[in-house]
Specification:
It is built from 7 helices and 10 strands. The protein is α/β, with parallel strands linked by helices and 267 residues long. 40% of the residues are buried.
Length: 267
């Protein structure tokens, strides 16, 4: 892990940056508690093999601002476990439980689910240290991934933005990068509002159909474990080709920083 923290921070934070390592189980993790002025910091724990301190810091700052804007009695934080989220359930549980034990004393931080983790992971955290957000229904939580809470927020933001830009949502062409817990729900909510999904990608490839993809069938296809580019209702294309797809609304719902100076002109 590259350690570059001298350019991180301002008068708001971060208040704490933790680098965690437990070689016995292969754990490397980052925790950034950005600001606790409004209360204990809350923020997700994501899991990916290429996380950086800068990414986790920027996400923690976003949580600070979002929680404050929503009037919540919480500050902002974020954490990341540097690992492949597709690892075995046994290995993921081992990593998450070890991570939880290592943040037991960081009482100003309340973890939640994020990309690569879910409600079950938060149940493991709660079991270890007694605090976590985004718990499974059986533990009194709201099944955020199941109901598509984040995807709904993305869909509402897209609808408002389209209106401001003078774009009618009905029959607008939609492309979604990433078809996981956020992307598939955003596509579903927007299609129910009249948008036409013309292209979508996942980590293995992409698919397009300018006449429209069958969203329900595509979601079923993905839930069965198949990559989107094998869906029979469209034409398979390269994952990176999604940026240049002709559409009215383009939603990034995968990894951060996908739009750069080198490709933004392709939109």
């Amino acid at each position: 892990m590259e350690i570059e923290i001298h350019n991180i921070g301002d008068e708001l934070g971060p208040e704490k940056i933790l680098l965690l390592r437990q070689p016995r189980v292969g754990l490397e993790a980052i925790v950034v508690v950005d600001n606790v002025a409004c209360g204990p910091a809350i923020g997700g724990v994501r899991m990916a093999p290429d996380l950086t301190i800068d990414e986790i810091y920027r996400l923690s700052r976003a949580m600070t601002l979002k929680n404050a804007a929503a009037g919540l009695p919480h500050g902002g934080a974020k954490a990341g476990i540097i690992a492949d989220p597709a690892c075995s359930r046994e290995q993921k549980e081992k990593l998450v439980r070890t991570f939880a034990r290592m943040i037991r004393s960081v009482t100003e931080y309340i973890p939640g689910p994020d990309m690569g983790t879910n409600e079950e992971c938060m149940a493991w955290v709660k079991d270890e240290i007694g605090r976590a957000a985004g718990l499974p229904r059986v533990l009194g939580g709201i099944p955020l991934d199941e109901i598509g809470a984040t995807g709904f927020g993305v869909a509402v933001a897209a609808e408002v933005t389209a209106s401001e830009a003078g774009i009618s949502l009905k029959e607008s062409h939609l492309a979604v990068q990433g078809f996981g817990a956020v992307g598939r729900h955003a596509a579903n909510f927007l299609s129910k509002r009249g948008a036409i999904l013309v292209a979508v990608s996942d980590s293995q490839g992409a698919i397009q159909n300018q006449n429209g993809l069958d969203v329900d069938a595509l979601i079923k296809h993905k839930k069965e474990g198949s990559p989107v580019h094998t869906f029979p209702g469209g034409q398979a294309i390269g994952r990176d080709e999604l940026v240049g797809i002709k559409c009215d609304i383009w939603i990034p719902a995968a990894r951060p920083d996908v739009l750069t100076d080198n490709n933004v002109d392709q939109l």
